[in-house]
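Q: Here's a chain of 56 amino acids. Please give me its 3D structure as C-alpha cells.
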Amino acid sequence: MKAAANKINKEWHETHPMPRNATLAQRIAWHQEHAKHCHCRPIPAKLLLEINKISR
C-alpha cells in the first residue's frame, strides 16, 4: 500500500512558478515560501545545506 501524499496547494503553485534558470538565491527564496504555503514536499536536502552555509 502506498503512503498518502502530502497535500498540494494547487493555487499557490499556479501563481508562484519557479523562475526559469533560477539562481541559488531565487531557488532558496522560492522553496522557503513554498514551505510556508504548501506541504507537498520538503526543501531538498542539497538546498538545505546551502541555506545552512549562508546562515552561519
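Q: Can you summarize the key feature?
A: The chain has three helices and no strands.
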